[in-house]
Write a structure and sequence with these properties.
The complex is a heterodimer. By secondary structure, chain A is mainly β. In chain A, 0% of the residues lie in helices and 33% in strands. The chains are: A mainly beta, B alpha+beta. Strand 4 of chain A pairs antiparallel with strand 3 of chain B, so a sheet runs across the interface.
């Protein structure tokens, strides 16, 4: 087994991915910082995991 | 749930995942399951109207807990395009996503080998055109990485390190290089335009790479696949295989990425036929030194 600590995201990714999720009374999804990315964890309707990765800094086109 | 059976004659596992027989197959453009879900549109695998990179458990898994994992990695919300057309930042982000998945899946007790790959083109059996790759977490070390570890023992050290040094000394098959990564066509390539993308320093996995190396890796990969597309001036099918150390304790390995393109001319495919399947020996119609010249020129044209 291998591992490397991930950090909780201190700032929202500002990407639009999680921000545009359908309105819900559920708590916001967990986010963690990993390198230049923020990983936002969701669970799909059928229970499968979904992770949305967003870059913390804006992408250069 | 899939079932593993051990093929004694070949000494290898066979994975029976019969639920995959019904998986989505080349859907109509407006029913792509890897698109974002737009208001009023069909529900896709990603229930959000926008995203950058998405990873989710495969709906039709070849492996699943407690015997491994199967994930889908969607490179972009843009249905058109390919890995080659991603922005440099997005391509670099993808390296970090791969690294994250290697770390998380590799930490699982039921995963011994994390295999990141992409099948591009119907010629290699792709069933969805949206730019994406996959990750399998095998509950065992599969035969190809096991062969690479055996090569380490045979050569008395890291085989990719030794082979990279040989290729740099020879030089005829080098396709591209930057500070951290070298792309070459191997001396004994099996496919007409096979290429290996190798990190210069001995890194067992993406986890051991410096951020600069991840950036250099993404640049090298995009340089290669853009060259592939320029070679015959058509989208170039390939299998891309990311080889890293097994995630069982103290495993050897050297991060490198192998490309197996099935085209040998603009219209002709290399088939795995009698000798390849029945005897395990590739018969090639081309020599790597000549193919490398053509691919190097294509890379220059695409730059």
């Amino acid at each position: 087994m291998i591992g490397e600590p991930a950090e909780p995201a201190a700032t929202p990714p500002g990407s639009g991915a999680g921000e545009q999720a359908p309105a819900s009374a559920d708590p916001p999804p967990p986010r963690e910082r990993f390198g230049p990315l923020v990983a936002e964890r969701h669970s799909k309707d059928d229970g499968r995991a979904l992770i949305l990765y967003s870059r913390v800094e804006r992408e250069t086109p | 749930m899939s079932e593993l059976r051990f093929n004694e004659l070949r000494g290898e596992q066979v994975d029976y995942a019969i639920h995959r027989q019904d998986r989505t197959f080349l859907p109509a453009r407006d029913h792509c399951p890897l698109d974002p879900t737009h208001p009023g549109g069909p529900q896709t695998e990603i229930p959000f109207p926008a995203f950058e990179i998405a990873v989710f458990d495969n709906r039709f898994p070849a492996f699943e807990a407690p015997q491994g994992a199967a994930e889908v990695v969607v490179y972009t919300e843009d249905h058109e395009g390919s890995f080659a057309t991603l922005s440099p930042d997005r391509a670099e982000s993808l390296m970090w996503v791969w690294r994250h998945r290697y770390m998380e899946l590799g930490a699982r007790e039921d995963v011994d080998y994390v295999f990141i790959f992409e099948n591009r083109g119907v010629e290699v059996g792709v069933t969805l055109h949206h730019p994406h790759g996959q990750i399998y977490g095998y509950p065992f070390v599969p035969p190809v990485p096991a062969l690479e570890l055996a090569a380490d023992e045979r050569l008395g050290g890291c085989a990719p390190c030794a082979l990279l040094a040989d290729e740099l000394r020879d030089g005829r098959r080098i396709l591209y290089e930057n500070d951290a990564v070298v792309v070459y066509m191997p001396f004994a390539a099996r496919w007409a335009y096979e290429a290996h993308v190798v990190v210069r320093r001995h890194r067992r996995s993406l986890l051991e790479c410096e951020p600069e190396e991840l950036r250099a890796l993404s640049v090298a990969l995009q340089t290669l696949v853009r060259g592939y597309d320029a070679l015959f001036e058509r989208p170039f099918p390939y299998v891309m295989a990311v080889h890293q150390a097994p995630t069982v304790a103290d495993s050897g390995g050297h991060l490198h990425i192998e490309f197996y393109p099935p085209l040998r001319t603009p219209e002709k495919l290399k088939y795995l036929a009698g000798s390849e399947q029945g005897a395990g020996t590739f018969i090639s119609d081309t020599v790597p030194e000549e193919s490398a010249v053509a691919l190097r020129e294509a890379i220059a044209r695409a730059a």
